[in-house]
Amino acid sequence: MGKDAGKSRTAGLIKASKPDLLPVVAAQFITEAQSSLAERNRVYQEEMNTTLQRRCAEVQAALRSHGLSNLMFYFRLGQLCLDTVTRSEVYGESAFDKIQRALSTKTPTLVKAAQFARVFSADQVEELLAFNGKNGDFQLHWGHVCYLITVEDQQLRRKLAKQAAEEAYTAEELHGVIVQAYGGTRRSGGRPLRRPRSLPSMLRQLDVETQLWNRRYREVWHGDESSLFGDILTLPPDRYKPELAEQLTKAEAALTGMQDAVAEALGLCTRAAARVKAVVATKTKETTSRVVSSKNKKRKK
Fold first, then answer.
1. pLDDT of residue 116
2. How is the chain split into domains, by residue range?
3. pTM (2 d.p.)
4. Which of 42, 44, 121, 147 has the most C-beta neighbours closer than 10 Å?
């Protein structure tokens, strides 16, 4: 069965099914998808020598294990991948590419794991695991590492990892700090933001992100029980440090940039909304007029 034919048949079943049959149809869809993946895996494995087939099986087994939250797991997975890349005399030419094609749904994980094993030593991974925050209750995870591996300088990478643990950064917060450390530019494979495919999707994204910022501001930064800047203003003078002054300067610059962006976006949004509403109103009026005119003609007849 061709891929398009399979999709069409499954889509038809879902459309025609009663609600109580949907779980059955969904299970059938999953089975067909797994069968397709298994067939693709088999086809690509035929291109591999026996040694590479065993290595591919090792990687696949590792991915199915339950250690996906453990940094040492990712490091060992990365060592398997890196060894495959560097020993072409054993595994053949383009060995890692063949494994990626055979296990295509896991390709990003394999590539990042290999990079992890390339830029970190086992001792450095142990040190990452030892960074547990000021109160001993924080642990760096794979999301943090995916950004740390974009930093080539070992000393800077260690400094950022330690800072992330001490300040309990989320992965995205660490990413922002890394961008600042590089002078505000993206380097070493930083991922660009993806543009939504349609205008309605873009507007929904704008709405969600704006509401999220507003909610965080009202509930975290300036809530009923505490206020970030209010708390700073009430600190005793001996708590005012150069680091705090620097952070406030950065926050002020960021908010000023946001203020300018919001003013520009609001002006454009207001113009766009006015135009769309006017055109829609005109079309609605014209449609209503045509309907009324058609009814009047029928009455005259």
1. 92
2. 120-191, 198-240, 253-301
3. 0.47
4. 147
